[in-house]
User: What shape does this take?
Amino acid sequence: MKLSHTPIQLKITLLTFGIVAFSIIIGGLMILGNIVSVKEEESGKRTMITAHTVAELPEVQEMVQKPNGWHSLNRVIENIRFIHNADYIVVLNQDRIRYSHPVYSKLGTVSRSKDESAAFAEHVYLSKAKGELGISVRAFVPILNERKEQVGVVIVGNILPTVQDLVFESRNNIALLLLLTLLFGALGSWLLARHIKKETFQLEPHEISRMLVERTEAFNAMHEGVISIDNLENITVFNEKAKQMLDISGNVIGRKIWEVIDDTRLPEVLYNTKPIYNQEIQVQHKNILSNRVPINVDGKTIGAVAIFQDRTEVTKLAEELTGVKAFVEALRVQNHEHMNKLHTIAGLIQLGNLEKALQYVFKTTEEQEEMTRFLSKHIHHESLAGLLLSKVARGKELGIELIIDKNSRLERFPEDLDHHDFVLILGNLIENSFAAFKHSSEQKKQVYLCIHHDETACHIVHEDNGPGIPASIQDQIFQYGFTTKGNEGSGIGLYLISQIVEKAHGKLSIDSIPNEGTAFYLSFPMKKSKEG
Assistant: This one.
């Protein structure tokens, strides 16, 4: 098994257990060091007390001055040694002859140790020395007679306990402490590891890493821009498509959203906690169609995500619904109309009415050419002129007369709009009127359209004599998804129109009378708005 694939629960357990064990070892060594220091200090004090006690005994002061006085003095000193639990007590006269010693054979011999010289100069001190039995702490005290003259030196020594001795001495307590500490350390490690595993949805680190890479690549593969933030407005996702659309470069993860996009609208949903769908907004001087949704976990908003497209691409798709599809429909209508006209001409020829057949051809051709010339002259954009031409043909097939005002003209678009916007507006308005006539008993069905502009504003007037819109729902018709048609996918056209009007800072009003018809009035400033 690779180390990277070792279960995280086992890793955390071993790591935490190792930290606990290491801490115990370091702590134990520090405690042992302190114990050794305390023992040494206590032994030094005890040794010094014993040395002073011996030096102040009258027997010692008297016998250390007698030749061969060690025979009597050694028994006294040995008794004192046992009482004070000293490892050895050595008494020297001024000639450094030993008058007491734990080894009887050394009595009467001369001591040649160098560290006792200061004691013969009436100094009192402690020293440590390493001998055959270990390291010992020794106290040196001069012996003074009644006249305060130095007559000898007392040396008391105690062997210091080793670390092994201290451990062996406290082995039961140490074993119990180790057992309890390691037991609770192992249990705590296991519980911590289990909790972390639960928090990570039972996923291992390499699985989380793989999921993060897959998620990042999935976002980058999307055709839409994706940006998400946490509840502190820090960026958590910013895919490549979003960077391309908003001209952002480099790594922005972890930065504040407003530091990267100063006119961001994403934090709005953090505080409103309500999703905003299909809203056309301007960000970084780009028109985008955005869906912004709060991210909720267990009823709490922890962030927000925006999924958006360049508005040009979106309107191209919308144009497919209102424009390109209309062109296809126009071809079908035109084909159907031409077949009817051919049948009519063929019938007149078969009846021998050649003159009437010729007049019919001229009349039909003239009407078609007149509408084409008018649109080409007054509407200076091919896709918009083609849309209106197709709608006229579509209306004829449905028995609806689409009247385009002879004073209509559109030489250029307002600076905040383009031909995609006009295709959306006109296509949806005309199709809504056509749909309204399905439930109308009006004998003469008419739709009127006028487009006009000057240097300051562009105006669109659209009227029909259909069944009208009830006053009770006139405030709702521009809401996303609201429809009276009852079929799925409706309720978007008027919403998109209202978004375009809002984006271009235009005006939109409606005048509708039941059973008499509906009129829409739109106006847009020709100059680009300062807010944009």
